[in-house]
Amino acid sequence: MVKIDTKSHPNLIGGEWKPPKDNTLKNHNPADYNEVVGLFPMATLEDIRSAIDSARSAFPGWARTPAPARGAILDKASQIISARLDEIATTLTREEGKTFVEAKGEVIRARDIFKYYGGEGWRYGGQVLPSSVNDELLYTRREPLGVVSIITPWNFPIAIPTWKIAPALVYGNTVVFKPAEDAPLTALMMVEALVEAGLPAGVVNFLTGDGELIGTEMTGNSNVNGVSFTGSHNTGSKIYQNAIKNMARVQLEMGGKNALVILKDANLELAVKLAITGGFGLTGQACTATSRVIVEEEIADAFVSALSKAAKNLNVGNGLESGVQMGPLVNHDQLEISQSYFALGKKEGAELLLGGEVDDHKGYFAQATIFDHVEPTMRIAREEIFGPVISVIRANGLNDAIEKTNAISFGLSAGVVTNNLKDAFAFANQVDAGVIKINEPTTGLALNAPFGGFKQSSANTFKEMGQAAMDFYTRTKTVYVNHG
Ligand code: ADP
């Protein structure tokens, strides 16, 4: 393995580290945009095709490698990440902006995902079925798809690539991976861990550069059998159209406009805590972030005043400084998007309770922002903002709250705060979202449970994480054996 320079980082194609040539991609520290975190190659079309060819050539050997041996490499990668926890978390904060505590939690998650799928190499398998005739063995076997393209966003730059790449590998696929332009260094560190753990050449290829150029080839090339993507709805739609031409299998995770519903019997202190965690944790830049709080009228004033008080005290700043609770937005575009929704909320007639200002003299900082008296028809109640903005919508009773929760085109995550079991289960059963949280924040996922949204939040094809990932990353073959 070549020594990775701290400023100039390579791509990995066919087992060879390729440093940047003429063109370079720069990633910046969003808390201090004068600081360049790293320089990366702008991969060319030739590079991408060569990466796909390498993954294709490496596929038969990797698919034949016993699954426990594939899993052992993931387990080793988990140990390598564990030994570099603080270093990777610091890098993550520097390139993405989330606080060090949040970053460390994410790196720990990546470590644990590798460990989980390492064990999966010993566990997964097919089925033996009862046969309708004598002397016949009827069974299914799980086979890898082949070459899979993994395209990821910047908001969880190590956890999302890991929850896609680890199952892809353990089930025997080879990978072409493109991280987001804004946070490629943490992703590279994860790939380095795999290489150091003994992954054969060509099994994972890593490319940085222009999303449109690289992504179009990664999703439309006829040698690609599967595509897993997390990102915006617009890009996801393009990917779907492009991949389907070759009948490649596609999994898309896209936006959310997640609601936390607070019923009148709720513990208010808990409700405030959950709204703060879900709405302002990760600076609101999680697909599962709480961007709407739907609260029963009877307790709305008391809740809103407690929420504003708590949000006002949030310490916003550089995530590497101790005591900082909310980092910056990832880049200038995201800052402008939040800013445009601050203006839009006011224009639409919502009441700005808190925040609504940005501070971009050094980094991309936005204030924790709360709008009250938001109507479900307003755009701030329907569109994904991906920033620290909570829209409070008032409801009359459980049914109205459920109706308002469902009155959007997304269906990723939704939560309810209540001590009433009957209401909690009515909510869980009637809400149109792939993840339901009862007395928990809308954010935060278990690594061993299926994850995926409904409606426009996904392609409504396959879930990810846990053993659900096996359905996406394998195909099933049915074998009839007459041994009479
Ligand atoms: P975001 O707004 O979060 O950056 P995107 O959906 O644009 O969301 O980006 C998510 C990922 O998709 C990134 O890695 C990006 O480079 C990649 N990407 C952008 N355009 C395309 C495309 N046309 N095809 C495939 N991937 C793309």
Explain what the structure shows:
The protein is α/β, with parallel strands linked by helices and about 475 residues long. Helices cover about 40% and strands about 25% of the residues. It has helices at about 45-65, 65-85, 85-95, 100-125, 160-170, 185-195, 210-220, 235-245, 270-280, 295-310, 330-350, 380, 395-405, 420-430, 470-475; strands spanning about 10-15, 15-20, 25-30, 30-40, 130, 135-145, 145-150, 175-180, 205, 225-230, 250-255, 260, 290-295, 350-355, 360, 365, 370, 390-395, 410, 415, 435-440, 455, 475-480. The strands form seven sheets. The chain has a seven-stranded mixed beta sheet, sandwiched between helices. The protein has a five-stranded parallel beta sheet with strand order 9-8-7-10-11, sandwiched between helices. A three-stranded antiparallel beta sheet has the order 5-6-23. α1 (about 45-65) crosses α7 (about 210-220), α2 (about 65-85) runs antiparallel to α4 (about 100-125) and α3 packs across α4 (about 100-125). It is globular and about 75 Å long. Mean pLDDT is about 95; it is low at about 1-5. Adenosine-5'-diphosphate binds near residues 152, 178, 181, 211 and 212. Adenosine-5'-diphosphate binds near residues 152 and 216.
Annotation keywords:
5-stranded parallel β-sheet, 23 strands, alpha/beta, binds adenosine-5'-diphosphate, disordered N terminus
Radius of gyration: 23 Å
Major sheet summary line: 7 strands, mixed
Number of helices: 15
Q: Which sequence of strands runs across the widest sheet?
A: 14-17-18-13-12-20-21
Distance between the termini: 54 Å
Bound molecules: adenosine-5'-diphosphate
Any low-confidence stretches, pLDDT <50, length ≥5? 1-5
List how many beta strands DSSP finds.
Answer: 23
Relative helix content: 40-55%
The outline comes out as globular
What value does the average pLDDT take? 96
Beta content comes to: 15-25%
Global structural class: alpha/beta
